[in-house]
Amino acid sequence: MGDFQTQEKSASQTAEEYKEKANSLFKSQQYEGAIEYYTKAIELDPNNAIYYSNRSFAYMKTECFGSALADATKAVELQNSYVKAYYRRATAYMALGKFKLALRDYEAVSKACPNDKDARLKYNECSKLIKKLAFEKAIAVNDEKKSVVDSINFDSITIEEDYSGPALEDGKVTENFITELMKTYKKQGKLHRKYAYKILFEVKDFFMKQPSLIDVTIGDEEKFTICGDIHGQFYDLMNIFELNGLPSSNNPYLFNGDFVDRGSFSVECIFTLFSFKLLYPDKFFMSRGNHESHTMNQMYGFEGEVRSKYTAEMADLFTEVYNWLPLAHCLNKRVLVMHGGLFANDGVTLNDIRSIDRNRQPPEEGLMCDLLWSDPQNANGRAPSKRGVGIQFGPDVTKAFIEANNLDYIVRSHEVKSEGYENAHDNKCITVFSAPNYCDTMGNKGAFITLNGHDMKPKFTSYSAVPHPDIKPMAYANPLLSLIA
Predict the structure, then answer these.
(1) In angstroms, rounded to a whole number, what is the distance separating the alpha carbons of residues 303 and 317?
(2) 231 classed as catalytic
(3) Labelling 76: which of 242, 353, 409, 478 has CA 20 to 30 A away?
(4) What pLDDT digit, counting tens, does each position of 267-284 carry?
């Protein structure tokens, strides 16, 4: 009996040591390492609510919202009086858009800690959001919603005499306009709202005419560049162009989703990218990411940034434009590029992707959801996503998909990687992520891929973050972010 008690005490001590190690890693923003050590602590002491709650927080930092929710729920089950676990679970629910469930947990915290001002604030903000959504639903009509484009009298918008920023030439984007636009943005200047609206009108009209899957032809000796997530990091976007050249008819690019949210300069990023799209429509390509959606833009800052720099009406127009972004690109019929990943079911073809009705907000399941949200895993088969949306797919799923569709490999983004890229699934599934030091905290490099039409072999360029103005992300002005940060 004594030996057993000694062993039990030793295991408990070791578990605590693992927790302290994990806490240290978390404080230094090494979240993956923290998760590893919290997991070791849980393996030794699986009934400790604190370990699950702490790991839930680390999962939140890596945007694994599904796993964060599961851990917080386990912590509540183990210790139903553990207030911090309810906080964690509410945060996970918020990140997954399950606002009513989040409100229930915030209410529990408020009742348990009636003098906690932060708890009351979170409860009130969540309650306001639910009422706002209910109101919007109540006033919605069954008829097709009128476009923001139809409600704006473009000709009545005047250009002030003291405006000295870039100007469209005869209503069109030109090389000179983009040059001046980037110079203005680097100096933290602003594009006039008349020109901003014009760009959004034009790019929406263009995307509406495009299929959900774009076929791209790359010449044998032509260099083609694929970039991953940018997330509002304008100065790092400029660094990509410094390293790899500006987009042009001889230097084509594909940006693979998540242009906005998180960073402080999402407006600057998106207008720069849309301008290049209008200037080089057949040599500059953009895929939709999971952050090109109304819910994500509400929670992670883009909507607040647009409202601050322009108007709420423009934020609604962005939602319309994002609904028409293509979902995937097929390069030379050999490489499929999408933001997230592959599918919950076998047998999906490129024609299935072409036929997706994409003019909507991302659904919670189905082909469109998987294209925007799914991630690869090392094990064969499929598993529920750690994010709580989409799935995880193994090397056998990738192999079957590319063989059935006569592809060489797939390229996706959506995940932070230490070097900015990762080869997985026997080099048949490539991840590229182009936002270095993501959220100013992750310490990762960014990367882009270059290839040519002759052999389609990917070459990787990694780079570190560059300095940017010390401005707190616009997202922090959004009360919703306090519920998920």
Answers:
(1) 11
(2) no
(3) 478
(4) 999 999 999 999 999 999
Q: With beta carbons less than 8 A apart as the criterion, state whether 394 and 379 touch.
A: yes
Residue 25, pLDDT > 50, answer yes
pLDDT (0 to 100) of residue 29: 86
Q: Do the beta carbons of residue 448 and residue 219 sit within 8 Å?
A: no
Choose, from 231, 291, 329, 425, the residue flagged as catalytic: 291
158, 159, 161, 162 alpha-carbon torsion, rounded to 10°: 130
Residues with Cβ within 8 Å of 406's Cβ and at least 6 positions away in sequence, in order, are 333, 334
Question: For the range 198-203, what are the long-range contacts, defined as Cβ-Cβ under 8 Å and sequence gap of 24 or more?
Answer: 198/154, 198/168, 198/171, 199/168, 199/173, 199/271, 199/274, 199/275, 199/278, 200/274, 200/314, 200/317, 200/318, 200/321, 201/149, 201/154, 202/173, 202/278, 203/274, 203/277, 203/278, 203/321
Distance, in Å, from the CA atom of 163 to the CA atom of 172, rounded to the nearest integer, reads 18
pLDDT at site 121: 86
Is the separation of the CB atoms in 382 and 399 below 8 Å?
Answer: no
Least confident segment among 1-10, 138-147, 272-281: 1-10
